[in-house]
Design a protein that fits this description.
- It is built from two helices and 46 strands.
- By secondary structure, it is mostly beta strands.
- It folds into five domains: 93 residues, Sandwich (Immunoglobulin-like); 131 residues, Sandwich (Immunoglobulin-like), CATH 2.60.40; 92 residues, Carboxypeptidase-like, regulatory domain (Immunoglobulin-like), CATH 2.60.40.1120; 106 residues, no CATH class; 99 residues, Sandwich (Immunoglobulin-like).
- β12 and β13 form a beta hairpin.
- The longest helix is centred in the last third of the chain and has 10 residues.
């Protein structure tokens, strides 16, 4: 048998006077294990896991009523720091677990009677990586739906602020269920009603919801919610498209939802261009229509679109007249900065830009950047604000040997601000260079040994560049030899910091950037230069 390692230690409460935690589950995982290994702590909180392979392993501790913690994590829910175990080596690890908070209350119906089977969640503000914005997402552990007394209980909550949301069960993807009509005399009212999600203290508008503060181990009682009915509306109208442009998909996007509950509603037109979207609850919406060319046209027309913002207040909105317009085109000159002879420069180049914003574009992506000779074209753009993803070819990674140095439209480098395209132009200038700047070095621990898997983030001092997808926020994970390299940073002043417990793209969160800025090492980029900076984890 190959030599094996051991991880042993003690699990305690995270208090001023820690106490051993018995029957906590300590789990070890890693690439060298065919399945995770788990040990149960004894009365003294001690655990021991042996016959472990050599390499880097992760360690987590869990127990009912406490917050699951990973070794090395500074906050709940963080990935933590791997533990390096050598052959025939015993490693001691101590873990501290904070006690979870509890929120409980009662859900009642419109008549004040207990509401059974209602799902209740605790929402906390978190950085939502796919869209680069803060969103209220579900956290904690629910004891299921409300019982026959209408009582709910959510436990295992980290200390913080929460919004309590109660929502009846959904029918498929429809955000409303159980449409009803009130009786007016002996006849039903034309107004349709449906139960909808409600926030404590019994409001349907998220901005009016109460924030519930919970300390570690605290139980907040009496957080009650009464269900509410809201009127439903039908949105209908017609879509008119130019000759050669076919029917498009109609998207109805909830623009004022910050919880992630309401997704996009999708429908299509009939042969006469008519459409209808039923059962729409009150709120702010954006109607987005995108049409495409119809075969067998000799020349495919550019993508067409329509955008329309509407406010829904329970009354039907009919006879919307939507006319498709051609998408915007941004084109211009391409400049290649290089000492390479002109004959060696690229003739054609295609740069995919997979970007989207759920609110501004309904999840639609920007088209690819087409480059031919010394001209480029970006055609079929729906006007709006777009968020660049974390990695864009040419910006965060090269295209061959080429880096996109700048994209100037109307005298403004649109790479240095959130990408906002409202009008077309044919006078833009895209500059590529084969001399990108960069900061590189080795990450070591206190003993001077290289450390693998550490996030190295370059943070610009100018907060105007703190936005999702900013090319001036560079991030790279150290390799097996501890080496890292952050490339293509524009000239400016930066702070370079290390972090061991960040999730993917979380380094775009302004709250995280503030912490990294204070802990970082100063670096100044003046041009296409290579700066060497070795970092030590403290």
């Amino acid at each position: 048998m190959a030599p094996t390692g051991v991880i042993a230690g003690v699990v305690t409460t995270d208090e001023a006077q820690p106490r051993p935690l018995r029957r906590a589950r300590v789990t070890v995982g890693g690439a060298g294990l065919t399945a995770p290994r788990t040990a149960i702590t004894g009365d003294d909180g001690a655990f021991r896991i042996d016959r472990l392979p050599e390499g880097r392993l992760t360690l987590t501790a869990a127990k009912e009523g406490f917050i699951t913690m990973a070794y090395g994590a500074t906050r709940p829910g963080r990935p933590g720091t791997p533990v390096t175990v050598g052959a025939q080596q015993a490693v001691r690890i101590d873990l501290r677990m904070p006690r979870g908070g509890v929120i409980t209350g009662t859900v009642t119906d419109m008549d004040g009677q207990p509401a059974h089977g209602i799902a209740v969640t605790a929402l906390a503000s978190r950085f939502f990586s796919p869209t680069g914005e803060r969103r209220h997402v579900s956290t904690g552990t629910s004891a299921g739906t409300t019982d026959d007394r209408g009582v709910y209980r959510i436990y295992g909550l980290p200390a913080g602020e929460y919004v309590i949301a109660a929502e009846p069960a959904r029918v498929q993807v429809n955000p409303v269920i159980g449409e009803v009509r009130l009786l007016a005399g002996n006849a039903p009212s034309p107004t349709r009603l449906a139960l909808t999600k409600v926030f404590h203290p019994s409001v349907t508008d998220f901005s009016r919801a109460a924030r519930i503060a919970v300390r570690a181990g605290e139980e907040r009682t009496g957080i009650d919610v009464q269900l509410q009915y809201v009127p439903l509306a039908t949105i209908s109208g017609t879509v008119t498209a130019p000759p050669g442009v076919g029917q498009g998909t109609i998207l109805l996007v909830r623009a004022d939802d910050v919880t992630g509950f309401d997704s996009t509603r999708i429908t299509r037109q009939d042969s006469d261009g008519r459409f209808s979207v039923p059962s729409v609850p009150p709120g702010q919406y954006r109607v987005i229509v995108r049409g495409a060319g119809m075969p067998p046209a000799r020349e495919t027309p550019p993508p067409h679109y329509a955008l329309l913002d509407i406010a829904v207040n329970g009354e039907d909105i009919s006879n919307l007249a939507i006319v498709l317009e051609p998408g915007l085109t941004v084109s211009g000159q391409v400049v290649f900065e290089s000492e390479t002879p002109a004959a060696a420069l690229p003739v054609t180049l295609r740069v995919p830009i997979p970007t989207a914003t759920p609110i501004a574009s309904g999840g639609l992506s920007l088209p690819a950047l087409q480059i031919e000779g010394n001209r480029f074209t970006l055609a079929g753009i729906i006007p709006g604000s777009y968020r660049l993803p974390g990695i864009v070819r040419g910006v965060n990674s090269p295209i061959g040997k080429w880096w996109l140095k700048s994209l100037v439209v109307d005298g403004r480098d649109i790479l240095d601000a959130p990408l906002d395209i409202r009008q077309g132009t044919d006078s833009a200038v895209a500059t590529f260079s084969d001399r990108g700047s960069g900061v590189s070095g080795v990450v070591t621990d206190a003993t001077g040994a290289p450390v693998e898997g550490v996030n190295v983030i370059a943070v610009p001092l100018d907060r105007a560049f703190w936005f999702y997808g900013s090319r001036r926020i560079g991030a790279m994970r150290s390799g097996r030899d501890g080496r890292y390299s952050v490339q293509n940073l524009p000239p400016g002043e930066y702070r370079v910091a290390t972090a061991t417990d960040l999730e993917q793209w979380e380094w775009y969160d302004p709250e995280v950037l503030e912490r990294l800025l204070l802990a970082g090492t100063p670096v100044k980029i003046t041009g296409p230069e290579r700066v060497t900076l070795d970092l030590q984890i403290k």
